[in-house]
Known about the structure:
- The chain is of the alpha+beta class.
- Helix content is 26%, strand content 28%.
- Helix 11 (425-434) packs across helix 12 (462-473).
Amino acid sequence: MKLSLRWLCEHVDLSGLAPEQIAHELTMKTALIEGFEKQGEGLDEVRVGHVVQREKHPNADRLSFCRVDHGGGVAEVVCGAPNVAAGQRIAYAPVGCTLPGGLRLEARKIRGLLSNGMICSRKELGLGEESDGILVLPDDAPIGRPIAEALGLDDVVFEIDNKSVTHRADLWGHRGFARELAAIFDRPLKPLPIDKTLAPDPSAYPVRLDDPGGCPLYLGLRVEFEALPPTPAWMARRLEAVGMRPISLLVDLSNYVMLETGQPTHPFDEERLEGRRIVVRPARPGEKLKTIDGQSRALSPSDLVIADGERAVALAGVMGGAESEVRSGTRRVLLESASFDAARVRRSAARLGLRTEAVARFEKTLDATLPELALRRYASLLRSIAPGAKVHPGFAIAGAVHARMPTLALRPDRARLKLGYDLPTDEMARRLESIGFAVRSDDDDLAVTVPTFRARRDVTCEDDLIEEVGRLSGYERVPAALPRADVRPAAAAPLRQVARDAVLAFVRECGFAEHVGYSFATDRHVEHYHHGHEGHGETRPFVRLTNSRTADATRLRRSLVPGLLDALARNLVEHADVRLVECGREYLPERAEGELPGERHVLAAVRALRGGEPAALVLDLRTDVETCLRRVRLSWEGRRPQGELPPFAHPGRAIEIAVPRPGGEAQVVGLLAQLHPEVARRFEIAEPAAVVELDLAQLAAEPRPPLRMEPIPQFPPARRDLAVEAPEAATVAEIEREIRAAGGERLARVELFDVYRGGKIAAGRRSLAFRLEYRAADRTLTDDEVNGLHQRVVDRLAKQGVTLRT
């Protein structure tokens, strides 16, 4: 949002204050000023000139020879503009002047005649793109006056950070900021000129409220005229300064009042309102509205519309309709000024993707007194600019809004305790009164009446009053002191600790990139992952959203995997080896507890390698899982899957990840599998891929040994590779258990590094290659000792039908 200093000065005297000081004080006490721009810079030497005489150039058909009175003499200038004429007031740049574009003017001959300076166009002055003709000023522009001053360009425009005033509906207009500046610099706030002759008259125009919850108050003012003057230059310049394009007097007045008071208004062409009535109602099913931007909008019954006797003519609080907008032939106008429900306006604007200046204000819950104030201000400005316009003395009114002015108690001692310094009670009262609060003494306390423009959702309790006192008194008055408190670090929540450690293991030790996806399931995810997959003929239930951010993301996700697969497909376009891990929640309505859906905390990881072997990829991801579980201090074993597999799992190449429990059955905590070919096809993943899912809540619930420091081994390990043939029915986990049982405490590590089928390997069997490490804590093992241990392993495996590969 932008603020004009000249505009602010109409409401409060800011003379003698530098823009830097104003920006600093507003930032410290009211809202963040991101910066400011001084308009008219580079035009200091350009003056208002008067074309005393204009003659055709004797040596060029398209050039004019002019004599220009610039207040300090008469200069002869050659001009090529087709619209230059004697008697005009123009912008004259003398010799030696440097224009905003960097052009420095010098006296030079043009077709034999000496030209001393330039008669400028808007483009040459940096005021627009028009360059076909010179800028012609009003006839009363004073000769010799600086052009920036004559055009009202000696202004400063402040840029406000909108986020810092989101909670302050009263600050969405110049009047609100002027009130703040009056309080900050202890200067009186000037009264706002309004038309006090207007009176409410329900018979002035028929208005019916069919939805008083969406529109509790509607005002309408009738205006008639034969012709209207153009928008005054001063008003057009102010609108342009704050980023608003001037259009026509009626529309510009509406925008001007909105930017001044914060209350949007809307002028309707009364002659184009069918049935001569206004009805505020919900949109009908299937109803459409062509808005003033030329777009046809499909409305919903949740939308509030302004209608005439036949059709919708505006989307309430959002945008007017094209069928009823004012045009050049308009002669009668109905000016709307109303209160609309903030939530309804926000929902309609979000659903239709419309973001307007009116929406930005109505969604803040505006002051209930603003509609009438804006109506009277519009009428006052119109009467001063177009005296010939007939403003009807009574304005239509339907409904009512009761302005809230609650009285809150402020305890000065508590305020001093909260602020941290001694502040006199009379200063507290004075600070609050300076911004419109009414204050009276109530024994030792203060009874503070909140004004209507701060009472809606802003100042509602004693602490809000203390904040007002503190910011206006100056936070710099708070003494700098270190807090004193008994601070003890809180123990980390087990689930959060496990989630962090697991992700760090994948990222730091296994080379994965962490993916952060949305918690929504798109229609694409449901179609490609959850629906129609074998074993999942019907779509499972989802948690539905009532305010989805996009039309195709109306559900909360049941799984992290579809989002990861989308990211995997995108990354495989550029990278050969892609590893992604994500930690998040899945939402399962069938596990609902009370009114809330069940949540499952999950870690999911995917890995793909261009040109890789599927079996080797699963083996690599298995090693990554082992690294992760070792990081969270859990041992694990692989088992054949029991029950239904998730959609991502290849039915023949999946293992359950289980954590053994002393004296009990192992607890399943996840699943590791090759990506199902059909799912890979749907997500356009042509490379081999593997997926793992871990239930973090289960991991956090498992007992784990305490952290224990162990000395670094002093003696080297002895390594042996073991290649065996095993039946397909024997799982890797079962074979590992037999190896560890045979090796005993001397067997420090077992690692599977190769799986092979085919060739000389009989059908129904496969080759598995393990790397074994033997180690003793007190000495280096001899070859005989290692060979003996290794033979024990071979013999034990042979009893299970697992033989050495020959």
